[in-house]
């Protein structure tokens, strides 16, 4: 499982970005709306990287387990 801080940072970017986007739409501020969309994308990317990190760690643990079983 990804580090809790990494997960928090990803979700924080996603939620903060959504808030900026909604506020930008409400105030007709395209710059803020676009910044919010960018923050959401940044959060999505961080989330994907966390998932990839977890998958690599799980694969390495399985591989290491097979080597240890063969001893």
TrEMBL record:
Pfam family for this entry, one: CsbD
InterPro entries per the UniProt record, alphabetical: CsbD, YjbJ_sf
Ranges of compositional bias, category Basic and acidic residues: 8-23, 30-44
Region (Disordered) residue spans: 1-44
Superkingdom to which the source organism belongs: Bacteria
CsbD-like domain ranges (all copies): 6-58
Similarity comment: Belongs to the UPF0337 (CsbD) family.
Protein name: CsbD family protein
Source species of the chain: Corynebacterium tapiri
């Amino acid at each position: 499982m990804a580090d809790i801080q990494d997960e928090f940072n990803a979700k924080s970017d996603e939620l903060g970005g959504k808030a900026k986007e909604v506020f930008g739409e409400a105030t007709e501020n395209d710059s803020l709306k676009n910044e919010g969309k960018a923050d959401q994308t940044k959060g999505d990317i961080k989330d994907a990287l966390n998932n990839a990190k977890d998958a690599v760690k799980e694969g390495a643990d399985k591989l290491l387990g097979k080597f240890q079983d063969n001893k």
